[in-house]
Amino acid sequence: MKIAMLARNPDLYSHKRLKEAAEERGHQLDIINTLRCYMNIASRRPEIFYNGSKLEGYDAVIPRIGASITFYGLAVLRQFEMMGVYPLNESVAIGRSRDKLRSMQLLARDGIGLPVTTFAHDPKMTEEVLKTAGGAPVVIKLLEGTQGIGVVLADTERSAKSVIEAFRGANVNILVQEFIKEAGGTDIRAFVVGGKVIASMKRVGAPGEFRSNLHRGGSAEMIRISPEERSTAIRAAKSMGLNVCGVDMLRSNHGPVVMEVNSSPGLQGMEMATGIDVAGKIIDFLMKNAQAGKTKTKGKG
């Protein structure tokens, strides 16, 4: 099997592991810098060019598209799909997961547990927004943030109002969510591949840090999740239409609540914490499922 991986940095742990896992199984995996691709859109036969050469003969494509280049990355991935190349995750599904507001609406539609989440355009609605979210403390998130960037914990009504009004004054879109105090600065990431949770870990925030992202100094350990948490992760992945994703959940007093569904989850923290060959399971999924032209979008919305 010949696999293309859309990734800008070939030296990242996740990208090296996926390449190793593919080659161990006798496949060819080429790491292609997404931003160096260009496309012939209007041709009857869609084409992608890379460093002056036409890309052809690929059986599958693994999108590892950074959040900062989502728009262009999804355009390149759509072109691969139009060429009949099987995507690990489809462009429409990645687009859903990258839009925090849309993803929350889809998860809510499908009855998946979420923290109380509010969204408004008018800064004059600040008091009503805070009231709906259950009052301070609240978590304020930029719609475009990743890896904990653009996430603020406002401890008091006064600080919450100041942060919300500052963001809205700068015309920045935000979500305001209830703060799940009982989670105690920890969360769970369940790694879903092909509709099954293949690994899970608990992430603990650094001292004095409410965000548990490993990029922010958090630590991780293997955890056994409950049947309800497993079901929630699988349903969240299905709701987005993602074959492979990391589902981040908090343990609240009313059951697991989903914070985010990540369409390009890092492998290092999960593999180190659990000892599970996550990269190998991803390549095995491609081996079983990659078929030419099998690019129909799953899910709705």
UniProtKB/TrEMBL annotation:
Q: Give binding positions for Mg(2+) 2.
A: E260, N262
Residues at which Mg(2+) 1 binds: D248, E260
Which parts pass through the membrane? none
Q: Which cofactor does it need?
A: Mn(2+); Mg(2+)
Please give the superkingdom of this protein's source.
Answer: Bacteria
Coiled coil: which residue ranges? none
Q: What is its EC number?
A: 6.3.2.-
- Please give the family membership noted in the entry: Belongs to the RimK family.
Q: Residues in domain ATP-grasp? A: 104-287
Keyword field contains NADP: no
Pfam families in the record: RimK, Rimk_N
Instruction: Please share the entry's free-text remark on the cofactor.
Output: Binds 2 magnesium or manganese ions per subunit.
Residues binding ATP are: K141, E178, F179, D187, R211, S212, N213
What general EC class does the enzyme of this chain belong to? Answer: ligase
Which GO terms of the molecular function aspect are on file? ATP binding; metal ion binding; ribosomal S6-glutamic acid ligase activity
Report what the protein is called.
Answer: Probable alpha-L-glutamate ligase
Q: Which GO terms describe its cellular component?
A: cytoplasm
User: Which of this chain's residues are annotated to bind Mn(2+) 1?
Assistant: D248, E260
